[in-house]
Amino acid sequence: MTHIEIRNASKTFQRNGRKFAAFKNVSLTVERGEFICLLGPSGRGKSTLLNALAGVESATEGVVTIDGETPKAPSVRYVTIFQNYGLLPWRIVRKNVELGLEALKTPKKTRREIAEKYIELVGLSEVKNEYPSRLSGGMRQRVAIARALAVDPEVLFMDEPFGALDPVVRMKLQDDILKIVKQERKTAILVTHDVEEAAYLADRVVVTTPNPGRIKKIVTPPTPAGRRDRASVDFLLTRDKIFEILRTKSSENVDYVI
Ligand code: ADP
Fold first, then answer.
1. Which residue's CA is the nearest one to ligand 1's atom 14?
2. Exposed end of the chain (fewer CB within 10 Å): N or C?
3. Cα–Cα distance between 210 and 171 in angstroms, integer?
């Protein structure tokens, strides 16, 4: 069964009394366990589409479903990780990671055990009792990742999650998130404007067009996600192909396999 289905979906906003489409006629199906990157510069409706999947916004036309249901409200089944981490500054790391579990009314002892498991998974055991202000940006994003995973979501949505990080930390976190997502068999949808990030992480890269946001091409890199080397010819060819697609004016909606 199709896990995520987006069919002829559009989202229209009112702007200065006129209708304005953030994305239009988008169709995409995602299987369980896939890692999808929605790629393109800003203003292409990527975040709005992610919000429609996460139940924060609703599409004005078409179908957006996860396991056959339209997401109508934020849920722990589909958790979003944002660029700005979204941590509570007055809570230590462990208590931040426990946040979603508290909402689920998980008993205290279990909450603590689960939080510690994911804190270890993201490599932060040594700072589990620190406040976020004592951590680097990369560490804060690791806390946000641990918090998201702690509620065992079916889908992980990520909106420019590494955008605020320096390149070295960013690459390390990309490696870690990819490993964790594949190991935990999560479905992941990540919004990014970074071509290399998409070419490295995704099972399929969905390249978007502007005004309104649409799907231009879907690129399937030849090497499976998680087994790519940033120095390999395959990776460099995929990256260059995506740059080429972004530069061309075509707006066909076709699968494009390198
Ligand atoms: P991207 O993620 O590709 O940068 P967004 O989905 O954030 O694109 O935004 C696409 C367009 O939709 C932008 O022009 C943005 O200003 C507009 N938009 C997004 N949310 C709203 C909203 N709530 N009301 C009006 N316009 C919006």
1. 43
2. N
3. 27
